[in-house]
Amino acid sequence: MKPRPRYHEPIVAVSAEPFLVTCLSAVYMEKVCAAEQAFVTLATNDSYARGAMVLGKSLRNHKTSKKLVVLVGPHVSDQSRAVLHKIFDEVRLVDVLDSGDTAHLAMMKRPDLGVTFTKLHCWTLTHYSKCVFMDADTLVVSNIDELFDREELSAAPDPGWPDCFNSGVFVFRPSNETYGKLLQYCTEHGSFDGAKAIFLQPPLGQCARYATFMAPRHSEPILMSLAVSLSVSIEEPIRLLRCEGGDQGVLNGFFSDWATADINKHLPFIYNMSSIAIYTYLPAFKQYGANAKVVHFLGQMKPWSYTYNLTQRTLRGDVQASSQPGFLLQWWALYSAEVLPMLVREYGDQPFISGCEEDAAASEEHVQPLMSSAERKQRWEQGQADYMGIDSFDNIQKKLDVFLK
Amino acid sequence: MKPRPRYHEPIVAVSAEPFLVTCLSAVYMEKVCAAEQAFVTLATNDSYARGAMVLGKSLRNHKTSKKLVVLVGPHVSDQSRAVLHKIFDEVRLVDVLDSGDTAHLAMMKRPDLGVTFTKLHCWTLTHYSKCVFMDADTLVVSNIDELFDREELSAAPDPGWPDCFNSGVFVFRPSNETYGKLLQYCTEHGSFDGAKAIFLQPPLGQCARYATFMAPRHSEPILMSLAVSLSVSIEEPIRLLRCEGGDQGVLNGFFSDWATADINKHLPFIYNMSSIAIYTYLPAFKQYGANAKVVHFLGQMKPWSYTYNLTQRTLRGDVQASSQPGFLLQWWALYSAEVLPMLVREYGDQPFISGCEEDAAASEEHVQPLMSSAERKQRWEQGQADYMGIDSFDNIQKKLDVFLK
Known about the structure:
The first copy, chain A, is α/β, with parallel strands linked by helices.
């Protein structure tokens, strides 16, 4: 696939002097893109990057006329970034800890809100007049450019507490002023949902549970102590799945009149259809689900947590427990056909987690190479925890028992 | 407690001639009550009647200035009706099958929507200018008379599919014209959620699942075949809990612009707070739950499905799996203190299901008297299924196996 041109390329060709490049680039961005609009997503690691790639492809396939922007965290590999460059118009590195600005200061005060600060960074994309943010675990199944007719802050209700909007899809106006206010709100008020720790309830795994904790994210010892601090985890057979940032709490706190002020800022639920709706209200899903324009793989295993058999075009693992096998397969069909070849090209001979297997490989599924603690941590953070093996509930329970003694 | 006066009582004293009574009564109702407003609920059996009693008491305790009306089905006992008369201003018998009117005709065409037709009957209360309908499984924890400032049809979002409103609490204007249109809509379109069959997922029972079926309600063989028709029920260890009417589907179909038309018709979620919200989005529940004005015991066991220990003021059974133990205990405290004494007075020496036990009785909990099939059916229909015994999942599974052979 031919890479799409990026904005600053013609400017780079004019001069190699860094300062001038920056200035010209800024002027160019300001003039050319001011009236432009963009879909924006966020990839904090290679797993979410795969989600962002599929999302970007799904937007292109449904012929969006808008620009595509992805914010990437420092943990995304060079190869993933290269692929993202081919799908998105703009790939912007966001490293809050390295920024030295107010966001960094805010982060020092509230380390628990790391991903939140990274996401809020989307308000700094002031070379666009209006944007639609979409989480990397969403999939577009229809053209949704009409969302740009809406005003900030438009979003769909969250099924868990429907007077809150879900922050997986929202319309916003980039603005440094709003960005500053959001950072200030963050540091002063935090997020009412801190970070979400999401549990799976075996053996069915259909019931995601949320809990709050305030601690730096992605830290295994903290996940353990978190589990200890929640009475549910001791009495009930659950397993920790992953943690998510608290951006939804911050944004709902900041845009606090969403529920009561303006019906036009309520996006229909089909623009952010939680895939668990099939369990929470099947008749409504049957009635309205076919009209879905955006599917959000919320609160359960992500599409990339499964393994896809390329030969049989089926998913391995507890798919019965999954949110919506049809949408999951749609995600994998797009990934395997249009994203995987690009990843293969970038990685070349180097091994990488593709999430796919072919029939021959399927028989080797129980061969488990030993992992270092660091590798295991990395896999956990990427949503690739070995739920049946070393990260199984039994093993976690053993660790919890140590805490409790 | 002193019985509250009913409207037609002075009229009855004027004349014993039935026709004249009817006319005068109608004139009286028209003149005196035209500008009046009322809370309306519905009791289809003695269990729901107990719910209605607690709801009525909770409204009185929070000093509502509105009238209280309860619609009762023909299966509600005389004793229950007598107690309802003491709490409510108006107790209106609704027997759709006996009515011989358009509702009866509609019912013949759509027998699956039995309870729906009974509920829609509330639109015929034209001697009130505006009403708020509340399901009998709701509990008022604050004065909510301000709901009468809203217009038809105002309701809170349903957490399962938040572009639908939940029909457990809604503001409406009684009108024979609207009633006729609703009946017509029912017979022509049915309800997209037919009747809901609600399952419990053992062993935790925290995950309610909904499914649609179109068949006369409250029929055990149909419940069985329904379970067979749902693939989930065969592969997964669930148990049928109860069925609910399809009024929510009808009302959402009829008032189909609710999600998009007028923000003032979106009641805040705290006016119909699903008690399962604690599981679906705990941080939001912690943030906003304390402001709850109405709790709705939705989608799981009803308060009256438990047994309450009067001595210890605790609930017996799988309360951990319940929606919200605090609100449940609040319901039982009100029931045991203010409703139970009235029931005891009405039933006198006759035995009835109080739902309560004292410490001495607690030791006898495993003594299970044999029940006839009819008694068992009645208990099932009243939400008093013997989940651990004869109605256990294992026993239902055995019956299902017979169907599958």
